Automatic annotation (TrEMBL):
Its cofactor is heme b; FAD. Coiled coil: none annotated. Its EC number is 1.14.12.17. InterPro entries: 2Fe-2S_ferredoxin-like_sf, 2Fe-2S_ferredoxin-type, 2Fe2S_fd_BS, Beta-grasp_dom_sf, Cbr1-like_FAD-bd_dom, FAD-bd_FR_type, FNR_nucleotide-bd, MRET. This is nitric oxide dioxygenase. Residues 50-162 form the FAD-binding FR-type domain. The keyword Mitochondrion does not apply. In the C-terminal section; belongs to the flavoprotein pyridine nucleotide cytochrome reductase family. It catalyses: 2 nitric oxide + NADH + 2 O2 = 2 nitrate + NAD(+) + H(+); 2 nitric oxide + NADPH + 2 O2 = 2 nitrate + NADP(+) + H(+). Keywords: 2Fe-2S, FAD, Flavoprotein, Heme, Iron, Iron-sulfur, Metal-binding, NAD, NADP, Oxidoreductase. The keyword Translocase does not apply.
């Protein structure tokens, strides 16, 4: 073989190698599986997520003898760790309930429920009381089963335990108001073991005594916790001194008799009657407003000596104003008799989405096209610029609303 023939062979071999290598690389590239992008984690904001996130109901547990209060354990479908929440905060659910206006159709209904356990990266828990005429609570009790998927907004709310723990905490729960208190209590016992805690739990009788065994075990295991249970209508089988410590309601007299002298931080959650009597009574007793923290069921319309903050300057109680609901095409006169713009809109047949009805969830947030509103009490949810929360707002001027 001549030198030129040898060179030609070598060049040919190199060329063949290059061609084979290119073909292999091309084939390998073509065979690469094409993965669909994983569903994006909800955008985190302050450890939470924005919008809705899908959760599966992992379990449900009845918490009282009457089976009127049921806990639902919720795990995220994306299996990612859950952000911590502040004990006392709530979850907002958007539920597909039958739409009464469209037979066979569904409408998203928003409701908020307090988290009833300490923060856990694996699950959340809410505990819901069945209300005989409560459409959503009946849906939970009668239809929501393990395996079901529900849509949730991130934990929210300004009602939560304080982190510094300097003063003893007095937790006052009425009925299902025990749910945020249990979350606060368990968190304090774990993270503020030096803090004195007084839990006052008011309910009718032993049949609806939720978390009874758990609370008694906590009180037995933690000497810094004093548990006072009050039955307003004890049954014949309920034992004073064993099942409950006080016959009657949780009122100021009971607090005065039970609490040691000194400064305390008060956290209250319960039905309107309890809140409407106890919050002003504590203020009259001399407890500074900054030491009274509360969450009422339903509209946040407790009497306070002064706005809790967030009221616009120039607010005029009893103001007469002209309101225009743009999308509904309605022009109406506000005479100050309605408690808020949501009540007013609904009373005139204008449908607006709503959830907590107390300024906490943002469901009723509506664009404010003209004018300004004022808030008698600072809402938990901060509306976006140019928007207002109808459930806690009153007009400060004539308004044009997008609803
Ligand atoms: S209904 Fe929840 S903020 Fe108005």
């Amino acid at each position: 073989m001549t030198a030129s023939q040898l060179l030609a062979w070598i060049a040919g071999a190199l060329l063949l190698q290059l061609l084979l290598g290119g073909a292999w690389a091309y084939r390998r590239r073509r065979e690469q599986p094409v993965f669909a992008p994983l569903p994006a984690m909800p955008a985190a904001q302050g450890g939470a997520w924005q919008g809705l996130r899908a959760f599966r109901v992992q379990a449900r547990v009845d918490e009282d003898a009457a089976r009127s209060q049921c806990s639902f354990y919720l795990v995220p479908l994306d299996a990612q760790p859950l952000p911590a929440f502040k004990p006392g905060q709530f979850l907002t659910f958007v539920l597909p309930l039958p739409d009464p206006a469209r037979p066979g159709g569904e409408a998203g209904v928003t409701r908020c429920y307090s988290l009833s356990d300490t923060p856990d990266p694996a699950h959340y828990r809410v505990t819901i009381k069945r209300q005989p005429d409560g459409r959503v609570s009946r849906y939970f009790h009668e239809q929501v089963q393990p395996g079901q998927v529900l849509q949730l907004r991130a934990p929210a709310g300004h009602f939560h335990i304080d982190a510094d723990g300097r003063e003893p905490a007095v937790l006052v729960a009425g009925g299902i108001g025990i749910t945020p208190m249990l979350s606060m209590l368990r968190w304090c016992l774990a993270h503020q073991p030096q803090r004195r805690l007084h839990l006052f739990y008011g309910l009718r009788n032993g049949a609806e005594h939720a978390f009874k065994a758990q609370l008694e075990q906590l009180a037995a295991a933690h000497p810094q916790l004093t548990l006072t249970v009050a039955y307003s209508r004890p049954a014949a089988s309920d034992r004073l001194g064993t099942d409950y410590q006080h016959a009657g309601h949780v009122d100021l007299e009971l607090l005065r008799r039970t609490l040691p002298h000194g400064r305390h931080r008060f956290f209250l959650c319960g039905p309107p009657a309890l809140m409407a009597s106890l919050v002003p009574a504590l203020a009259a007793w001399g407890v500074p407003e900054s030491d009274i923290h509360y969450e009422a069921f339903g509209p946040a319309s407790l009497p306070r000596s002064a706005p809790a903050g967030g009221a616009d300057a120039g607010a005029a109680p009893g103001l007469h104003a002209q309101l225009r609901f743009q999308r509904s095409g309605r022009s109406l006169s506000w005479d100050g008799s309605a408690a808020n713009l949501l009540d007013f809109a609904e009373a005139h047949g204008i449908t607006v989405d709503s959830g907590c009805r107390s300024g906490g969830c943002g469901s009723c947030e509506t664009r404010l096209l003209e004018g300004s509103v004022h808030y008698p009490h600072r809402p938990d949810h901060d509306p976006a610029p140019g928007h207002c929360l109808l459930c806690v707002a009153q007009p400060a001027t004539d308004l044009v609303l997008e609803a």
